[in-house]
Amino acid sequence: MSTPLPLPPLDELLGQPRRAALDAFRRAGWRPYATPIALDAERRRLLNLDLSEPDVAFGEQGELAAVANVEADRHGIVTHVEVVGAEPVDPVRVSLALLGAEVGPPRTGGSAEAREWVWGPESGVHVAVAGEPVRVWMCAERAYGDRLWVVASLVRRV
User: Where along the chain do its domains lie?
Assistant: First the structure.
């Protein structure tokens, strides 16, 4: 992908009503997801479309570059956001877009086959949205071309 993936800040996604979170993606240039006619099985697996149905998609020059879905609690408040890109992206750059510059280093793990980065309680980094603790997990798997998979979730809701 030639341009950075435009992501709304976490405070516009987590802890917000579902509609507000989807609107934040739309303001960032995403569109409602509709399965492209030419989408093949390999690209579906790459974007985890075999695991869930996305809410929004980001494309560039007719190519599906990333998809995202949001999950809300029974009150309609978003507690979980998942973004999967088709191309490798620098996880530090994504963390800066989502969390800001003061977030601190992640806990890292994995191997050359699958690497992970975690910001949140288990990494010693305090990330919060509207006073609620947040965990941001990113993974890049060699088997999927090192594309980035990002999951941001509220750690608990009161």
Answer: 10-154
